[in-house]
Amino acid sequence: MASIYEGTFDTASLQKELTQALDEDRKYKATDEMKKRAIHTAAGDEAHDPVTSKELQNLSKSERQRNRLYHKKKASLMPATRPATLTGADDGAAPPKSSVEFQRTWQRSCATDAAKLQYLERTTPARLAKLFLAEIDADLFGSIVACLCRSLRAVNPDGEIDAFEAEQVLVHRSMAILAAIGTTRRRSLLLSFLTDAQRDDLSQLLDHLHSVAGDANEALLDLRRLYATP
After folding, report:
1. Of 58, 152, 87, which Cα lies nearest the Cα of 113?
2. 47, 60, 66, 199: which has the fewest C-beta neighbours closer than 10 Å?
């Protein structure tokens, strides 16, 4: 059984155990109800057959004892299931090992743009390129683009010199992320699946990068060629 201290959770195993426990509970309740009715019916005949009534009562006590043990087991399972909810705060603490893991953590644990940026930084552009070499889901890509777009607008909205360095860092990070994802083999298919809103976000992101990086930035020109939407 998965432990809360092990860092990983076998939700399929836990679900199976809980299902089995619930089945046992239903069987117990049905059996216990039948035995109670049998005891009630036999109560009038107790004088004729006291042994049978006593055996049923003793058996019922044994079943109740088993039920108490079942409820203890059921209660011990419940805390272990809570960390496996869709708000696992530690899910993004380590770089993802697969594209599926990245998407799952992105959707369930990265609730804010700050958390999303941190997860992208932890994953690194090089790892992103490997994870999504074959393909990337259009909605996931759109979510990444939207996050970068919002973050760039928020980092230095008034063009302050004090925030210029942070803006430059985010610009270069965004360009590296786009370049990494742009190596996916099904880029044309990805772009064709984008919604109008997602295409608009991508266009705004490239324009914002252009406004900061300048016209002569070769890396940005490459990005515009990569993400030329059909």
Report:
1. 152
2. 47
